[in-house]
Design brief:
Butyryl-CoA Dehydrogenase, subunit A, domain 2, binds flavin-adenine dinucleotide, alpha+beta, Butyryl-CoA Dehydrogenase, subunit A, domain 3, about 45% helix, 4-stranded mixed beta sheet
């Protein structure tokens, strides 16, 4: 396959080579944030890939952004510490006012302002976003007062800004089921009324709970029209799905590469274990599964880039890629036998990291239900 993105892939690989397994293992033990890695990606302009050049970004395509994240993961690194910076800014870009774009995008592009936190999920509503309870109440014309709680707000401790979805009109008074929610750009450097509590998870993910207690947000930080926030958030989801899918493809490639190399070098019963078809076939199967998912990621990215609707392809890409990376992770542990469990091989770390993607940012059943209802026309189930 011809790949016009080869130069960018090579540069990302070269950058990632400076952050080997030891670096990630040490952070993983402490659940510490990969600040140096994120700084290196920021300095290289990769996190500003999708910000147009007019605002100081790299003005690259989604295919390029996908290639960046895929290479990060295929190199054994983890983009989860910063990938949201790439796509959350899309909400400002598409729905923000000219003043908001001018005020925030150049700073985000330079890395002076971090927009890495995305507050949608809540403990009581989960996937049922329209039932969220965080309230933003207008206080005169100049501000909103926010009360409520978010959960799984990743990177909140390492972000200056948060894109927050909150209810501005009570559900029963909203004209439509999907109206009454609004998006705010919350400046988290103003900590009055904001409490962030880290959640320790099975992998190093810097995720948190965020509590809002009469947090005051200037009215000028409302993005777009009041009440239309759900639509704005949905419009950014295809990019998110495509980018996360690319990370999963990168993970799958890493696992397949590790397993193939080990199967060739590990000698037992007088020959390489990879000479046994019982060891070869699962690696070959994982490769096929990854390649099929990769084609779907490419199709989704091409449609996105052409400005066409790609909800079906982006959802399928995320799901197929997340399943492919998980299958490859399992295969890689099996190929390594006991060594698959040893910290120094990095496999158990990557195994834990890649498990996330059939749950977040959207879980398997929600993707299946989207395909069933919106693609196949089956009855709505919820
Ligand atoms: C490490 C991590 C990081 C995250 N980062 C962020 C973030 O930065 N910002 C953010 O807003 N969110 C974030 N999330 C939240 C993530 O998007 C949700 O966990 C995910 O969407 C699933 O929601 P839930 O956990 O509330 O599960 P629930 O909604 O409680 O669902 C539980 C299970 O039930 C299934 N289910 C629910 N309803 C139905 C139905 N009608 N039919 C069939 N099955 C159903 C779901 O598919 C799921 O398997 C993160 C989560 C994790 C674990």
């Amino acid at each position: 396959m011809s790949d016009d993105l080869q130069p960018i892939r090579e540069s990302v690989r070269a950058l990632c080579a400076k952050f080997p397994g030891e670096y990630w293992r040490a952070l993983d033990r402490e659940r510490a944030y990969p600040a140096d890695f994120v700084k290196a990606l920021t300095d290289a302009g990769y996190l500003a890939a999708l910000i147009p050049e007019d605002y100081g970004g790299s003005g690259l395509t989604i295919r390029a952004a996908s290639a960046i994240l895929e290479e990060v993961h295929a190199s054994g690194c983890n983009g989860a510490a910063c990938h949201a910076q790439m796509y959350t800014m899309g909400t400002i870009l598409r729905h923000g006012s000219p003043e908001q774009k001018k005020k925030y995008l150049p700073g985000i592009a330079k890395g002076e302002l971090r927009l890495q936190a995305f507050g949608v999920t809540e403990p009581t509503s989960g996937t049922d976003t329209l039932s969220l309870r965080t309230i933003a109440k207008k206080d005169g014309n100049s501000a909103y007062v926010i009360n409520g709680q978010k959960i799984w707000t990743s990177r909140a401790e390492y972000s200056d800004l948060m894109l927050l979805l909150a209810r501005t009109t009570p559900r029963e008074q909203a004209k439509k089921r999907t109206e009454g929610l609004s998006v705010f750009l919350v400046d988290m450097r103003n900590t009055k009324g904001l409490t962030i509590k880290p959640i320790r998870t099975m992998m190093n993910h810097a995720t948190t709970e965020v509590f809002f207690d009469n947090l005051c947000v200037p009215a000028e930080n409302l993005i777009g029209e009041e009440g239309q926030g759900f639509r704005y958030i949905l419009s950014g989801m295809n990019a998110e799905r495509i980018l996360i899918a690319s990370e999963c493809i990168g993970d799958a490639k890493w696992f397949i590469g590790k397993a193939s190399a080990y199967a060739k070098e590990r000698n037992l019963f007088g020959r390489a274990i990879g000479q046994n078809q019982g060891v070869q076939f699962p690696i070959a199967r994982a490769h096929m599964q990854m390649r099929a998912a990769e084609l779907m990621v490419h199709e989704a990215a091409q449609l996105y880039e052409a400005g066409e609707d790609c909800g079906e392809e982006a959802n399928m890409a995320k799901q197929l890629a997340a399943e492919a990376s998980w299958a490859a992770a399992d295969m890689c542990v099996q190929t390594h036998g006991g060594f698959g469990f040893a910290e120094e091989f990095d496999i158990e770390r990557k195994f834990r990291e890649t498990r996330l993607y059939t749950v977040a940012p959207i879980s398997t059943n929600m993707v299946l239900s989207y395909i069933a209802e919106h693609v196949l026309g089956l009855p709505r189930s919820y």
